[in-house]
């Protein structure tokens, strides 16, 4: 079992104009500001309110309610912006109001009920002071607005020798976001890796053990960090204590990008860390992994 500090999760709680209560990992939040004057762009995405200037740099402002299928506010002067910087981009999320920051355990965050379907834009649910809090799938919101560019020909990224090194090698990807999972899978399959996927840390551990028992162990685990019930850090710590699968090479693949996260990844025993999502960077990370493994 990992310690409470390792499991600790800080959430910023906020509401949309409908009154819906949502949470976002505080690590994904740069700052909260009043909604500034926006410049509207021709032919912009219907979920984009406009562009704001923040300390001299342009920033896209997303009407979060509309982006997840609700009715947004009619006045940009109402509400505030949650400024996020993740997956290699910065944007402002226009919301009705921010409530407060709360602490909870990652193990108390559960997967969304199956009845919510694939269009729910949430990655998990938890209870705070008796209230249900839905945790926003911000990666999916951003993907729906601007899907990342994926290289059509990864063979141009890698040398023939590097492609030979990867061909047929066994990789497991774990991510609670179906969008992120599919992006990774598309890249890894083009590299001709033998790739499988699961949606939870528990599922990853079970598959790692099963492949080991079958005599075909998974060589590289590509894991998200933010996952319900057991996050990527705890997954690595648990894996490293297992006699059979403890030496598995682990790449933590996350939308979070900071020195603190890299240091923590190394502290728990991860071999490498990569910010989502770049097809070329993921391809290079696979080369590093299998050159290390030989």
TrEMBL record:
Keywords assigned: Phosphoprotein
Residue span(s) of domain CheW-like: 8-147
Which residue ranges does the record assign to the Response regulatory domain? 170-291
Which InterPro entries does this entry report, sorted A to Z? Chemotax_regulator_CheV (IPR024181), CheW-like_dom_sf (IPR036061), CheW-lke_dom (IPR002545), CheY-like_superfamily (IPR011006), Sig_transdc_resp-reg_receiver (IPR001789)
Q: Which domain of life is it from?
A: Bacteria
UniProt-listed SMART domains: CheW, REC
The record's listing under PANTHER family reads: CHEMOTAXIS PROTEIN CHEV (PTHR47233), CHEMOTAXIS SIGNAL TRANSDUCTION SYSTEM RESPONSE REGULATOR CHEV (PTHR47233:SF2)
This protein is called what? Two-component system, chemotaxis family, response regulator CheV
Q: Which organism is it from?
A: Pseudomonas cuatrocienegasensis
Q: What is the lineage of its organism?
A: Bacteria, Pseudomonadati, Pseudomonadota, Gammaproteobacteria, Pseudomonadales
